[in-house]
Write a structure and sequence with these properties.
Rossmann fold, 28% helix, methyltransferase, Methyltransf_16, transferase
């Protein structure tokens, strides 16, 4: 690829080997027209979208087990898109989103690499309204609470795009901002259940991964 280098990795989820094109390392950078900079993506952050992170693999494992029946699902910060690919293979109604200008071509390439149809994708800034995106029964994300203020911005997205009865599922590697996120979602009527999930297909119980699963029922939403 021009301006940066990639490699291919494979992760098994639910017994299926997902092949993924990722950036070769964290030193990759290419923003010749300044598009990423205008979106607020610094050179130090530029390569983060294109990696296979443990929290992303944990979210993919959770989505292999997630009840998708009748649900419209939005993934925030999809990056290379493993969790959305798992949902696509299961036949879920999923929309993947990210702010990075290369997330969409990487996602399309990875879908084709695994013999899947192209996913629905929207570039999404959390600090700007996008009414055309619509509403969702479930909003999912991995390791999105890495900076101060992320909890507030994430809650704004939930406020704009979650149905009154909805779920929010976040995999978090133990960053300190999850407590504030839980308090803010509580104000929106969401209750938290923390559960364990395998990190990979070979991870035996008791599982190492932790999943923050928030649910809002009609009574709480209408209170």
């Amino acid at each position: 690829m021009p301006g940066y280098h990639t490699r291919q990795v494979t992760h098994a989820v639910g017994g299926f080997p997902y092949r993924l094109r990722v950036l070769s390392d964290l030193q990759q950078f290419a923003d010749p027209d300044g598009h990423g900079e205008r979106l607020g993506i610094s050179p130090a952050q530029w390569s983060l979208f294109g990696q296979s992170w443990p929290s992303g693999r944990l979210l993919a494992q959770a989505m292999h087990r997630f009840d998708i029946g009748g649900k419209r699902i939005l993934e925030l910060g999809c990056g290379i898109g493993l969790a959305s690919l798992v949902l696509q293979r299961r036949g879920a109604d999923v929309v993947a989103s990210d702010i990075h200008p290369l997330a969409e071509p990487f996602l399309a390439y990875n879908a084709a690499l695994n013999g899947l149809p192209a996913l629905h994708y929207r570039q999404l800034r959390w600090d700007e309204a996008l009414p055309a995106l619509g509403h969702f029964d479930a909003i999912i994300a991995s390791d999105v609470l890495y900076e101060r203020g992320q909890a507030e911005r994430l809650c704004e997205v939930v406020t704009r795009h979650a149905y009154p009865v909805a779920e929010v599922l976040v995999t978090d590697p133990g960053r300190g901002n999850s407590g504030r996120f839980t308090r803010l979602l509580g104000e929106l009527g969401f209750a938290l259940e923390t559960s364990a999930c395998p990190m990979n297909d070979e991870d035996p119980p008791p599982y190492r991964g932790k999943v923050l699963h928030y649910r809002r029922i009609a009574r709480a939403a209408n209170a």
